[in-house]
Specification:
8 helices; 29% helix; globular; binds N-(5'-phosphopyridoxyl)-D-alanine
């Protein structure tokens, strides 16, 4: 069954969903995006995703062709039209088509596209056994807090991980882990403290990260927001990643070294459980 895709205000069958070859998203990666998860046919933490979208747009001096209310309406219609029970809604805004010029067009006509992807989020097979990660240098630009579609370095990192037989890459800068190729990275210390990198321009401010840290504090699980080295990660008791498309996934090996006893840790499993419980309770249909 072909999907129905949203393109600039219209819902069209997938083969008819097209944008111009002159679109600045295509020519300059001049665009931003969001991925909102869908559970039980409802959007998870979508207001936070749209707030981050507004911020990304603002940082790039880009205008949205639709209000947040119009975007939510279109996201919900897309979920209904594609009969999506569990998965994600992808949304991208670019500065739109213009003759190729590094300078921004004087009168941009931004492009807005959205599509759904079906994906088992709760019964994700990776949750049971965890994934291995390899570390790679962080080759990305210096504004990783802006969620742009300039994802080539992240894509290279992910492919290098798969080629090495791992599930994902942790990117490293000056000896410290920044984040995963498309997720935030955490360790749990011997003392049971959940550690993840502090916010700044070096990482994306994950929406799942914010929820997991809030839930940790509510459940009296100690949290520290600070940078950690690859060496500290390798000697941690647990490791994990979070993102809208994976929720909480255990990491059981880093560069071939086993973390803890090589199985998903107790705190990680607990975080996944309370995250899913909270997401389920608050979906927006
Ligand atoms: N990626 N860090 C990076 C570099 C990311 O690309 C993502 C999300 C995250 C986690 O953010 P959130 O919890 O808001 O999903 C962290 C999405 C899922 C993607 O590119 O598909």
């Amino acid at each position: 069954m072909s999907r129905i895709v949203y393109v600039n205000g219209r819902f069209v069958p997938e083969p008819e969903a097209r944008v111009s070859v002159f679109d600045r998203g295509f020519l300059f990666a001049d665009g931003v995006y969001e991925v909102s998860s869908v559970l039980d046919r409802g959007l998870v933490d979508n207001a936070a995703h749209l707030a981050r979208l507004e911020r990304s747009l603002g940082e790039l001096g880009m205008a949205s062709p639709a209000s947040p209310e119009e975007i939510v309406r279109a996201q919900k219609e897309l979920i209904a039209r594609n009969d999506l029970d569990e998965g994600v809604v992808y949304l991208q805004i670019t500065r739109g088509p213009a003759d190729r010029d590094f300078a921004y067009p004087a009168e941009p006509e931004p492009t807005l596209v959205m599509f759904t992807q079906e994906k088992p989020l709760v019964d994700n097979p990776l949750a049971a056994h965890g994934i291995a990660v390899v570390t790679v240098p962080d080759l990305r630009w210096k504004r990783r807090d802006v969620k742009t579609v300039g994802l080539l370095a992240a894509s290279m990192a992910k492919q290098a991980a798969l080629d090495a037989g791992a599930g994902d890459a942790w990117m490293v800068e000056d000896g410290f882990v920044t984040e995963g190729s498309s997720n935030n990275a955490y360790i749990v210390t011997g003392g049971g403290v959940v550690v993840t990198r502090h916010l700044g321009n070096e990482i994306l401010h994950g929406i799942t990260r914010a929820a997991v840290l809030r839930l940790s504090r509510e459940h009296r699980i100690a949290v520290e927001e600070r940078a950690f080295t690859v060496e500290e990660a390798k000697s941690a008791t647990e490791a994990l990643i979070t993102s809208a498309s994976s929720f909480v996934i255990p990491v059981v090996r880093i560069d071939g070294e086993t973390i803890g006893d090589g199985r998903p840790g107790a705190i990680t499993r607990r975080l996944r459980e309370i995250y899913i419980e909270s997401a389920r309770a608050s979906v927006d249909r």
